Amino acid sequence: MKFFVDTADIKEIEDLAATGLLDGVTTNPSLVAKSGAKDFKSLIKSICEIVSGPVSAEVAATDYATMRKEADVLRAIADNVAVKVPLTADGLKVCKELSDEGTLVNVTLCFSAGQALLAAKAGAAFISPFVGRLDDISTDGLQLIADIVRIYDNYEYFDTEVLVASVRNPLHIIESAKMGAHVMTAPPSVIKQLYNHPLTDKGLAAFVEDWKKTGQSIL
Ligand code: E4P
Predict the structure, then answer these.
(1) Does the beta carbon of 108 sit less than 6 angstroms from any atom of ligand 1?
(2) Residue 181 and residue 146: Cα distance in Å, rounded?
(3) Closest atom of ligand 1 relative to the 30 alpha carbon
(4) Taking each helix axis from N to C terminus, what angle separates 89-100 and 64-75, rounded to the nearest 10 degrees?
(5) Which of these is catalytic: 2, 41, 84, 213?
(6) Could you tell me the residue ranges of all domains in the chain?
């Protein structure tokens, strides 16, 4: 499973990139606002210099003509920009055109299997189903991931990767990985939770103490 981080905070991206485990980055207008960055295009350029994998940069407009112009600006920033468009008729029209021209497109705000089918037909590189926001309205977000993975598996000619988004906890990641979802994007705090287990802490403390008793040094 590929790991993307869902943030527009440069420091957080640098820290995670240093682990060697980061495959890409997703941003959205809310995350850019939260980061306080004043120049969106420079921000995306900086992120693309830190991470060699796909960096999702979202269009701001909602009509076809303006989205298309914005997409052209965004994809010119760096080779690893994945243009992010909303799952609307206009968004998918932009997706189809860009995908046909070899640009990576991430279709966002997916909440149904039918929407995911449309995105695959539009040639999206990534479909982003939002598990957490579905859970928030008492609908099983992980069931949507299972449905999309199953549907895409039925058609060899669908190259779209399932990018699990709106991830709120490690279970969302683990269960999606069991289903074979290709990618997940999560906030840094959730990615860091994956490292933790109380038995790891307890076991390590015991090993450190016992090693001291040997009176030896490896170096
Ligand atoms: C996906 O690309 C989105 O940025 C994201 O995962 C949204 O998550 P949220 O529901 O936590 O805002």
Answers:
(1) yes
(2) 8
(3) 12
(4) 40
(5) 84
(6) 2-214
